[in-house]
Amino acid sequence: MKHILFLVFICLTGCGRGGKIQSTCKEDFDSFFEKFATDSLFQKKHVDFPIMKYYSDEDFPLDMMENMIDEESFEAIYFQHNTRRTNDTYEIIIKKETDSVSCYKRGINNPINIEYIFTCKKNSWFLVKIVDNTD
């Protein structure tokens, strides 16, 4: 009987969370992202190398290719708009989950469609995966 009550208690307290854990990150994501988006040195220190980048194959757009990027070949990611170039207009959409944050760069009148996935490690946020669905 004790075991049944214990199982009921576990289900009532944990089953409705969908298996996600509460983030223990001490750093506020909004403050972190502001610095990540504007400081290339800070950005490089907050990438979990080697990082996987997934992208569409040019010949077969439904096939996803993958590329492992190490620290030496990493290029800074720009989130600020360049006003000289009108073809790179995009919006940034941030979707926060309990254990991760997805930052979407979505093009406005262009095919830009990139997702940057962050998780909390060592009490700070780190970029852990890039998914580029740009056509």
UniProtKB/TrEMBL annotation:
InterPro entries attached to this UniProt entry: DUF4348 (IPR025590)
Taxonomic superkingdom: Bacteria
Entries under Gene3D superfamilies matching the protein: 3.10.450.410
Name recorded for this polypeptide: DUF4348 domain-containing protein
Species of origin: Flavobacterium arsenatis
